[in-house]
Specification:
Structural class: alpha+beta
Number of strands: 16
Radius of gyration: 42 Å
Helix content: 55-70%
Strand order of the largest sheet: 2-3-1-4-6-5
Oligomer: single chain
Length: about 725
């Protein structure tokens, strides 16, 4: 996209505020391409989540097995039957009936009793064919002989009925047996409970390790995802044109790389795991509840639509609040960034209170939005708890009546109580996690919006061309330029050529277009009209990274990092030997002050090089420009902020930098450019005069007037 175009997106345009939907799921899966190198880790975490959910589902069912299989494994007694037991409905087989030894009397063990059709059961009880009581049954076999059964029956005082193949005890009579009789009668149940208790404990331990494993794994995955997202996002920002950064606020871009990616990390490492675990638990619990008792399950689900409605409403409110919060945080970041950059002016003009007041307004707005979030949670969470408690009350009421009416077993009721907690815990948890999801989805949308900005400066040809070289010629042909659509031209019909090894200066009043010429040379922007060539090759067709590597740039506002002098000279270019950097510093005269520093080249120069003078920073910049042995050198107001003594040092350094190179100088101080081979005088975006210093003085035109103001007219 050319500089004349317009970036069509605002990073903080209002996004569609909705509760979780299919579009959000697409956003979530949109992160998948960034997980290519660690997908096995994510899949292992998913397996851990699945196993942890299965353990969670299994535990209440084990409670049901314990109650119905070992604590109260109760069967039924059929009376007044013929030689064969009656038809009790589908599901019962001949093996489910145990003859009592008495004509027309049969027993149905606990497993078979659960298969009896409930409607038929009531009819049989009413007709006297089915004993209304439930019975505890124990078969006579090698482990429980007939002699032991006879003794138990005698000692129980008739509470234990003796039959040829089994003993039977009515449910109410179980609690009337003494301890010794209970041990004899129920020793197998006690052993079974021991095994079940060990299995229960083993599952809990396994569940702990599954949960621990998925947390560690997903934490690792989230950190890797954040790492790749930041790298990809920064790389994308580097590819965008300067016009994008002209229209984007630094604080908002910083939020994308920091808080927005942190929101995604939080979702992946905790919320996403809980979400999928909760979904699996919800599906599994629902399936088991329906399988155990469809009627009781229906009772449990009566108020589910209300919980879903509440969650949907909360999600809608939460996303809007999160969107507001993200905007407030971005505004605070931007305000603080601007305040930090202008702290000297703020102090100098005594604007501390005014700036603090502006920050306070933003901070209070953020605080009020945070309170809205707190209030929404304060209403929502107790409401979900109330709904869950209502369901539990319904289960106890209806389930208790069903147990008393022999419609379900006590174990089923106990399992439903456990599953009710597990059924609404995911709904509540999912709703709680909506807040984090909304924040993360808003962040994903904002990051995706930034990725979708296609404002890159790309070569126009089919493939980038390598710059021809070694060279040194620059040509502007009928170049006009504006910084945006519907904006005035800052350059109009510019034509000039800089020959190899020539030094050309650009002078003119502020706003005449000097810096715009430099921006076009570096292809920070593209001309609106005309073309620029380097050694005959069109700039738009060149590989930008190779092109810019040929140019040494020194600007008026030198940016230095908070590292050492050597790190600032090399700028992370580890392939450059220290000796090359020292040699460049010596050639421009920077070594004189560097070697006086306590740490020399290893001296840390503080944030933005504030411990150095303006002249020293410029000398470092000249040395930095010389390290790569560039073919072209551009100095943009390099002496604007230095004193006369520093100007002399920098001018000497520049002569070293210019030696044998094509050079462009921009300066207000004409003393800096008077020795240039040619001087181009710009006025309102046009070249109005051209020639050497002496030639231009003789013309008695605009340059002469500028020189007279600086006492250089002679």
């Amino acid at each position: 996209m050319s500089a004349g175009g317009r970036v069509s997106m605002d990073l903080d345009d209002e996004l569609d505020l909705k509760p979780l939907n299919t579009g959000d799921i697409k956003l979530l899966f949109g992160l998948w391409p960034y997980t290519k190198t660690f997908r096995p880790v994510i899949l292992l975490g998913a397996v851990m989540i699945l196993l942890a959910a299965l353990v969670s589902i299994a535990l209440p069912y084990l409670t049901k097995v314990a109650l119905d299989g070992y604590v109260l494994p109760l069967g039924r007694k059929i009376v007044d039957s013929g030689p064969l037991p009656p038809d009790f409905g589908a599901g019962l087989e001949d093996s489910d009936f145990l003859p009592s030894g008495d004509p027309g009397v049969f027993f149905v063990p606990a497993g078979g009793a659960e298969k009896i059709d409930r409607a038929l059961e009531k009819t049989l009880v009413a007709s006297g064919k089915l004993d209304p009581d439930r019975w505890y049954l124990k078969k006579i076999d090698a482990d429980f002989t007939f002699g032991e059964a006879s003794k138990l029956s005698r000692d129980s005082g008739g509470l234990v009925e003796l039959h040829p193949n089994l003993v039977a005890v009515r449910e109410p009579d179980l609690t009337r047996l003494d301890g010794a009789a209970t041990l004899v009668l129920r020793n197998a149940d006690l052993e079974g409970l021991k095994v079940l208790a060990v299995l229960f404990a083993a599952l809990m331990v396994a569940g702990y390790f599954f949960d621990l494993g998925q947390r560690v794994i997903l934490e690792t995955a989230s950190q890797k995802l954040g790492y790749f997202l930041r790298e990809r996002l920064l790389s994308h920002l580097f590819s965008l044109s300067q016009s994008f950064f002209d229209k984007s606020e630094a604080g908002r871009l910083t939020s994308r790389l920091t808080s927005d990616i942190n929101n995604i990390n939080a979702m992946v490492k905790s919320t996403a795991a809980s979400f999928f675990s909760d979904v699996l638990s919800l599906v599994g619990v629902t399936a088991v509840m329906v399988a155990l008792s469809p009627k009781l399950a229906l009772v449990s689900f009566l108020v589910t639509p209300l919980a879903v409605l509440v969650s949907w409403r909360f999600g809608k409110i939460a996303r809007r609040i999160q969107r507001d919060l993200r905007g407030k945080v971005s505004a605070i970041n931007q305000y603080f960034s601007e305040t930090r950059a202008g702290i000297v002016i703020i102090k100098a003009l005594g604007r501390e209170k005014t700036s603090a007041l502006g920050f306070r307004e933003l901070n209070e707005s953020n605080f009020r939005t945070g309170l809205r979030q707190v209030h929404s949670f304060a209403v929502f969470l107790p409401l979900v708890d109330f709904i869950a408690s209502s369901v539990l009350a319904l289960i106890l009421w209806f389930g208790g009546n069903m147990v008393l009416g022999n419609a379900v077993s006590l174990g089923v009721l106990a399992a439903f109580v456990g599953y009710a907690n597990r059924f609404f815990a995911p709904i509540k948890d999912l709703a709680e996690k909506v807040n984090t999801f909304q924040s993360a989805f808003a962040s994903i949308e904002r990051i995706n919006a930034l990725f979708e900005v296609d404002d890159r400066t790309l070569p126009e040809g089919p493939v980038p061309e390598a710059p021809p070289g070694p060279g040194g010629e620059i040509a502007f042909e009928n170049v006009s330029f504006a910084y945006g659509e519907n904006m005035p031209m800052v350059l109009e019909n510019i034509n000039f050529t800089v020959g190899k090894g020539e030094t050309v200066a650009l002078v003119g009043a502020t706003g005449s277009g000097k810096s715009s010429v430099i921006n076009l040379m570096l292809r920070f922007y593209d001309p609106t009209e005309g073309r620029i060539t380097f050694d005959g090759a069109r700039l738009k067709n060149l590989d930008l990274s190779l092109h810019r590597k040929r140019i040494g740039l020194v600007t008026q506002d030198v940016y230095l990092y908070g590292g050492t002098v050597m790190e600032n000279l090399k700028l992370g270019r580890t392939d450059i030997p220290d000796e090359v950097a020292r040699n460049a510093a010596e050639r421009v005269g920077a070594s004189a002050f560097i070697e006086k520093l306590p740490g020399g080249y290893d001296e840390k120069i503080g944030n933005e090089g504030r411990t150095l003078s303006a002249g020293e920073r410029q000398l470092l910049a000249c040395a930095r420009a010389l390290i790569d042995a560039p073919e072209f050198v551009i100095l943009d107001e390099a002496t604007a902020f230095v004193d006369s003594e520093s100007e002399l040092l920098i001018s000497k350094a520049m002569r070293t930098v210019f030696e044998g190179r094509t050079s462009i100088i921009i300066a207000h101080r004409l003393s800096t450019v008077k020795n240039a081979d040619r001087i181009l005088v710009l006025n309102r975006g046009r070249i109005v005069e051209e020639g050497s210093h002496e030639d231009l003085i003789k013309k008695n035109g605009l340059y002469f007037n500028l020189a007279r103001l600086q006492s250089l007219e002679s």
